[in-house]
Amino acid sequence: MEQLLEILEDIQPDVDYNTCEDLVDGHILDSLSIISLVAELEDEFDITIPAVEIIPANFNSAKAMWNMIERLQEEE
Amino acid sequence: MQLSTLFLGGRYDTMTSYFSIAFLVIFLPVCLILYSLLPQKLRKYFLLVASYGFFWLVSGKLVIYLLLTTLSIHYFGLWLDRIHRARNEAVKGVEKAERKEIKKRFLKQSRWVLAFAIVLHIGVLLTLKYSPFFTTNLNAVFTMLKLPLQLQVPSYLMPIGISFFTLQAVSYLIDVYRETIPADDNIFRLGLFMSFFPQIVEGPICRYDQTAQQLWEVKGIEYHNLSLGLQRVAFGLMKKLVIADRLNPLVKEVFANYADYEGGVIALASLCYTIQLYMDFSGTMDAVMGIGQIFGVSMPENFKRPFFSKTISEFWMRWHISLGAWFKDYIFYPVTMSKPMKKLTTAARKKLGNHFGPLLAGAVALFLVWLCNGLWHGAGWNYIFFGMYHFGFILLGNIAAPAVKWLHRKCHINPEWFGYRVFQIIRTGILVVIGEMFFRASTLQAGFAMLRQMVTNFRFATLNGDLLKQMGVDWKDMGIVLVTILIIFAISVWNEKGVIVREALAKKPVVVRWAVLYALILFIVIFGAYGAGYIPVDPIYANF
Amino acid sequence: MKKAWKNILTTILFIGILIALLWILSVIFQPRNNTSAEGIQDEQANGILAEPENTIDAVILGDSETYCGYIPLELWRTYGITTYVCGTTQQKMYYTCDFLRKTFETQRPKVVFLETNAFFRDYGYAQIITNTLEDKLPIFRYHDRWKTIQTQDLIDDVEYTNIERDKGYHYYTKADPADTNGYMQENSGKISIPKKNLRYIREIQKYCEENDARLVLISTPSTKNWNYKKHNSVEELAKELGVEYIDLNLQSDQVAIDWNTDSRDKGDHLNYNGAMKVTDYVGKYLKETELFEDKRENPDYADWNTQLEAFDQYKAEQQEQ
Question: ipTM more than 0.95?
Fold first, then answer.
């Protein structure tokens, strides 16, 4: 989880990822940040994130992202 | 056919507009009454029948396109589902290493099915809408190359809403392919999702998981929904009748004869067109959403106060939202998340860092999105230019973002400062108006000519009562437009703060509520630009 | 159940008050005079509202064929019979019906000519609804007066004083020759008259009967708009209604239209020359009914002579240009 938070801080600083729950819906992470984020996450956690996973439900909060990462790791 | 002549002829008679007498006074009330009288279990089927009836009244025999599209995606969806089920069977009790191989095999199968289906549906849309444009340009190339070959330019009749329901159909198929939703085995439910009459003419483009089940579970009309829904329809009617129709002569005149007008006047006409377009389209959306609310169905909003946007990127998250969302989910992310693009991003991030790295793949995807967005609006070079125009500014905004941030720090500008935000809003507004000028211009050359006029000859010297008369309006008209815009602005500010005005109104005492409603209705009756001497603007988005 | 009744009653009350408000607005916005400055539509046709009561002998109702083809002042000059052209562009039969009733509020014409071109004009029910709404609640027709309404309007009564010099005729002299190829070629076929219009025509016939007026169907010469098939349909209808039908397209011996000089727009409408010939025929017809006196010396009708003088002067001025 800490790695995730580090990555997020790096891509889009000045956001409290512990509490924020509308990263996508609130346009805090824009589509280009998402592209960067996905590349980093795939690298760091050795998973593949297909386009179908790029939905607000998966990216609106750090927690949601972590759940997705864990799920994708299992499916591999 | 006697029934179709019920809606014959005349300016207010065609049902393409949800504000036509034929629709608002005849079709809709009859629908609502029959719907209410029918037993609950028949209501959804009635909506399906009414929706097809509506389609037929507007496009006649061309309803076959809607029917075939629905049957097609029904069949392809079930096929995809079968492949998924077969795959799930095949991987049962198999080793992890083998599982990947099996999944890959089935994925290839489903991919072919999806590709075929998409090519089929998009192909029909392309042929109907773009083959004349394509052939004309091909002929121009032949002429340029001095080849003695000229193809006959085809001309096809298009069913209403084909650009909208084709995208909706493709989104369903992709969602089934992605296993976001199971295929719908109920052809009627799928049929209603595809044909629901308030959304067929101008959208919004809905996702299956947004409206299909809602529609299938429609219940009797509730008084509260009826009241609030009608209020929203009335609000849309005000936007259309008081503003959009009133600005019609001015817009038509200047765009048809731009050479006769000074740059400043052309700018004014472009501003008026942008206002007209917004009022017409968002007003229609108000009617659509209002009617949806009457049936207790909530569809996604297509507009969120677009003129409060601070950047062009933001604008497209607030204007025609369902179209932007479609492109984002079905073009932008699939392209940027494709293997080659991901490789590009990874390589680029190493060389260009975290901001500019993803921009390469992003730019490619954005280019595709904006090419499609421009073309979706029409088969014409000015539409392609329109797409590229917005692509350019969005890309520019992204490239310049770090530099702008640096500039802010250097000049001690706080981007949150109200004054700066106003500057951003006005700047975005100007860019949007110029873009819309190209959108409306009769040809791309005309667009450039108008831009040149605006830039080199930005004067208002000739703007007086006579010029206004020549353009079909007078000072009083412009005054009323301004007043109405202010009203809408006030309501928009409330909306931006999260207030739904008619719900807030419902909580006020009856006297206040009715006073406001009467004021709204009488305002439309008195100041609407209808009747003798007025030509209503054709629903602008109905042609897409 | 109670809630449902409460809702229904609330709705009825809401609509009731709304209609009351619209009715009040209708009274306020009603034009106080029959001029276009005051907001009246079709100013020339509506000039009849200002004509002194019971002074019009015959009216002709219909579309642009009427106001291009019939000249009341010329008819007056030769026969001393008062006629009025109640014609409007693209007139629809429901409008014709309304206009007839409006005319009879202050006039008692003994002959009503119904121009037949409008019989074949179709339109949607939506337009009928619009028209009915505008009739019952005139605010919908005159709402645009918000731009011109004066406080004086709130005090004044409705009083129609605008006398149209040309009594509904539109003067035009230029000629644009017509192509007479196939014009009125004999044909046994028929073009059907829309059912809606048949209903209105029958209503008009009944109304004329009840009000002691002779209804005459008349077809103005036009190469573009008229043909034998239409003639057959109208003839059949006239027989069924028991009314007279005059097809001027087939009276070339009495109404010798020269299509090189008598049409203003390639055979769509007549110009002044053509209208003179038609008017003379109609004048003769009216004289032979023996229903009307020659009122040229009648002091009560002196204004007609005044208007005729003004018309002659206007024509002279136009010639000079």
Answer: no
